[in-house]
Amino acid sequence: MRPIANFIATVAGAGHLRPAPGTWGSLVSLPLAYAVYIAGGFWALVLGTLIAFALGWWATSVATQGQDDHDPSEIVIDELAGQWIALLPTLYAAHIHDIPALALYPGWITAFLLFRLFDITKPGPIGWADRRGDALGVMLDDVIAGVFAAIGTMIFAGIWHGVLGL
């Protein structure tokens, strides 16, 4: 079971890329999100995000069993789940307005940058989740960072399209 858990936890080895494996994990998650969206639409990405969270929780638990480090840097399935959450508002907009997903590239960039900002700085509840010291905490800090990034992406879109009228 441990090899399968490591494969999932490192997102097929992406977590072994250096430097900054968390950023690499987030970058790798972008084309994977696009592939899921193209293959099955917005709701497939929502389902995929839920599955990534559940599998990530399990894989992180197995991969870190017996280790002192509860959140080794090579585990990036949490970045994938969080990054996918951050992308949901952009891809929902593409879905409901029948716009090609990549045409909304500013939303992709904003979601990526905000997710990395929140994941690295860990303000408020993100830091709390990270300090849990268990597999659920590993996943939760990125889920919360993803929610923060999703909200930030919607705020930026509202300012850009609503206030500025662009």
Automatic annotation (TrEMBL):
Signal peptide (UniProt feature, chain positions): none
GO BP, sorted A to Z: phosphatidylglycerol biosynthetic process; phospholipid catabolic process
Catalytic activity: a 1,2-diacyl-sn-glycero-3-phospho-(1'-sn-glycero-3'-phosphate) + H2O = a 1,2-diacyl-sn-glycero-3-phospho-(1'-sn-glycerol) + phosphate
Bilayer disposition of the protein: Multi-pass membrane protein
Keyword Cell inner membrane attached: yes
MF-aspect GO terms: metal ion binding; phosphatidylglycerophosphatase activity
Cofactor(s) the protein requires to work: Mg(2+)
Protein name per the record: Phosphatidylglycerophosphatase A
